[in-house]
Protein 1
Amino acid sequence: MTAHIDFHYSTDCYEGEYRGFNIEAKHCDQPENPWVMWDCNTPMLSISGRHRNITEHAEGDNIQDPLEYYTEGQLSRHWKALCKILDLKVKEIELEVRENVECQNAEHFNEERRRIFDDTLYSLKPSYYQNASDYIDAIADMFNLIGIHAVSTSASGYSQGDYAYLLFVLTPEHRKRCGFSKASEDKLFKEWFETDENLWAAWAFGDVYYFDVIKDGAIMHSGGEYYGTDHVKSYLDETARMTVDFIIEDFRQKKTNRLKQLIANKVSILQRPTILNQIPYRSDYF
């Protein structure tokens, strides 16, 4: 079993040691938003601040309009369940639909239901006076009703006011863009949502790190960004160890190659250690 780096918090960073090298994990001052810089992140929106500011990262997917994803058949089958999600009374909606529709057929009934549900969902949209969770809970429930995995959750930071409501939706368009199967999604969606929530919170609330590999006080290599305080889960630990392994192997290879040159050039055996000791712990790879 591979031994992880035993990090401990010092004055301004996490410190650890691996194979004679010091590893320091430090906060990134201006980390990149992974939903802006990376591909194939789950479509999401966040609601934060006193004024319930909505920020959406969905690559064009309309995750604030779940009814757009409903077929006519699904709307006919699930309209009563939608009433429950939106806190509407079934009998009142049924009466309103029949009163407002001149042609008494299923198609026109659905058009009127869509209008009512759209208006109701819009009325839940958060403001200074409205709870944001009602809005994203309703959206998530409406997606889940037709088998599109969605989750509404929240995240908090270390300071007062560091709080946000989050919605993640695995849209069919997202699955097509990223090339994974519905079977994989059905199996892994809970794990994906947990990863998404932790990733967003790490970025939003300042838990993003880079690492320095240090030997004899000199920085050999720096790498980042890694999201989250768990340096094993974020792969900072593994990447730092791989970096040290490479530096050591590269150093050994350089000494071996240099020794072969010294032997070929018939350099005195007494001078060889001095020359070999001048080879630095640096790699042309980085």
Protein 2
Amino acid sequence: MDTDSIHPLSSDSEKPLSGITFLDSICSSADNAEALRILYNSDGMWPSNKDNGSNPLTFSPTEKSLRDFLDEKVSSPADKDAPADISCPAHAQYLTSEYRSLAIFLLAITFFQLCGSPWVKEPFQAECLSLCVTDDQPNGQWRLHAPCDLVPDTGISDPADSVAALGVLILELDAGYKASWSPDDESRSGKRSHQMRLRRLLREWEGDIIDENKRIARSCLDFDNLVGSLPDYDLPQGMKVPAIIYKYVLEPVLRHNIERSEEFQNVFAAIFGQDDTLPLFRNIVLPERVCAFDARDRPLCQDSLYRSKKFFNDADAFIQCIEEIRGNSDCPTSKGNGKKRIVLLDSGVDREHKVIRRAIGSKRINEQESKSFTSAPWNQDDSMHGTAVAELTMRVAPIAEIIIGKICQGRENPNNTVLAEETQAIDWATNTVKADIICLSLGYRVAHDAADTAVDNAIKAGVLVIAAASNSGILERRARPACLDGVICLHAANGYGCVSEMNPGKLVDETNFSTLGDGVHVLQKGEFELKAGTSYAAPIAAGFIACILSFIEAKVPGLQALQVEKLRRKKGMEAVLKKMSAKDLHGYDFIHPKYMCNWKDSDAVQRAVDRVKKALRDV
């Protein structure tokens, strides 16, 4: 039978041979009167006449290469966003930004479905994909087609180069430009390399690509390293590749575009028909991923190290002033011994770390009350995240008492138990430890009633709860628990107050505080390393807040009960923090004690007392 004139409709088998369920196919051609229905999964492909329950659409397609719909880089940027008009020749049209985002969305899902498949021989490239424009639909029924050969390819392909080709395609669709090849894109053997091409485009198109797609493209470029560093979760070797594609490509694309579902509703209907023919997109549910923390390493750049050290050096006068004030004051706190109690709920601390060992010996870290809510002891920290958090807290709050609550053993939490452990730990910190401050350098997107209630109860008990905003950039909102009512949310900036690109978008009706968290130096294995993340800004802010509480108790006597209560609430403490912060060019309030007064000048310190009183009166 001559199949050249037959449009095959490929779709997943309802009974996969391998037992692995894949998403419905979205890369197939449309049905026509002679359609050949093909079922496929990771193990094979076979014909079937069984109806899948949908009502296939019929139309006369006109196909052009996807590359024909992309603009030349030298053209006006306005051209690439011109609205498509299907009455004109297909090759003359440039895709709107909406359709380009949709194409990235569809291709990411398709690539995840077909990665490692023997049926796709060529990497996804704009010139190898076709775009079908219908002539009989006034609203434009656009479909992307990927060629699938019915003869499997048993040759060995390079998945890293195929993933890099996808990264190039994402950049092309984001920018709306065609990506050319350069002699620099050839390997020593003279073969064209998608990896070298992607590396060049990331450099040359820096200003044309949104941050989220830049991150995805960099992950595509770093594919081999990501596969090699994947923790062993008993995954078969064949599943590691799709696992990385899912985590670093598909999931970010889904998260970005699922929020645009209303925008895409008409587009989906135009492409796939009515809702009852589109089970794929109606049933997409993002996984409820619980991530304990999401910090990053920075290269040990001397400029960044200098900025970090200067930040802490500039705070020394404030810290020394607080130490002297507390040393000359017998004023107890409402919680007991005169020291502010900061509970750090994180991955524990490493007892062998130089700073931690010294802090335990001097009782700055309360060894008796610290506790683990996991199977590992509180003074063991394989990830070193909690150790860095504790080091930073003690650096800016030398007179505070630190209590460690270990609620996780690493960044990922595959069993999603960290929320139950966090709930127990917050209740413990509130009711048993009697914390002044709880610092949560973690974030998650999953709603959890018990954890939310524990946070709320802590706030009602007069505990100040500090949490990291998120490290996912402006395409994500504040994570939990930072987004909860009553929680003081912290964003990350460098030592000069410039906010990091990892912060979520600034909120209009909220105070947006930042402090050092991007390029902050910590001691690791005897040497300084630079870290980045809102989870490092949170403990620095917590330490400053502990110092401010001590300062107010010692220097602002006679506060009324209502004023004391305000100070123990988000609104009151934020009013005081406003007095020790400066607004940056982006509208974030960068916290640093030097903005309150010259702490070396006793007269200036008295003026700071007056400013605190006024802040509490105005709340």
Protein 3
Amino acid sequence: MSATLPGANSASLPPAILGQRYRLERRLAQGGMAEVWLATDLSLTRQVAVKLLKPTLAADPVLAERFRREAIAVAQLSHPNIVAVYDAIEEKIGGERRQAVVMQLINGKSLR
């Protein structure tokens, strides 16, 4: 099951499910390559962070592969100061290829 995501400028999101498991709630942050969303893991009933590669970048095979390799590399690490990676997803949403990394949600203030 997937839903169409609104445009990148949207700060709120109607319920959208990624990977038939993660319900996106609201955007937490945005950078040049990706957006980070607060999401609910419907299987384990916990909040997580979902990093979504921007659609224009996900369409580039080189950048999409780099994003995937980064997720794999971070998932191999285990340290109290490194965010845990729970899942990596690639699917089509609204006709666009999207890639996402599901991570541990760290609550607190932005370091910016």
